[in-house]
Specification:
This protein has one helix at residues 65-72, and strands at 4-9, 12-13, 30-34, 45-50, 57-60, 75-79, 82-87, 95-103, 107-122, 130-138, 150-153. It has 178 residues and is mainly beta.
Length: 178
Amino acid sequence: MYGVGAVKYKGAPVGYIGKDSFDMGGTKPESAEIEAEQVPGAPVLVIPQSNGKIAPKFDMIQLNFENLQQLLGGALHKESTTVTGWTAPVAALVLEGPWQIDLVSGQSILIPNATLLSDLGGKLSLKETAKIEVELKVAMPSAAGTPPYGIFETTNLPTEWSEEKGWLLPKEVANTGS
């Protein structure tokens, strides 16, 4: 898997992603090691505590007014049908929902439920641009048995992955251990 082709929030592309800014982030799995006096040097039991997690981070650099609203909330301002400005939200804002990351290598990472943490950052110079610094906190979907994320061929996404069906993934099937 390599190369970011497109990033979509609730089915809509979010704009250009800064070169070399996309990081899968996340944490390694956690476990508790139980040691015994009679067995020095190695645990006698390893108890899994949590699976590894992803927490994608990236910079979105295509800052038009619509993209500012999509990733930071707030309000668009118009004259007739032309958008002429954007203002930041007054209250704390929580944006959450489905994310799709299409890769150049032909796969898509599907995240049914992630909370968007974002801020307007970057530098205003002739060498760099302003950007929206984005971090996704992946959470369990509300539908029981639905995985927190999945990876599929972009040309063969699950039928559950649509706005009409609630941006879900196929439910986990019990492993029968063949």
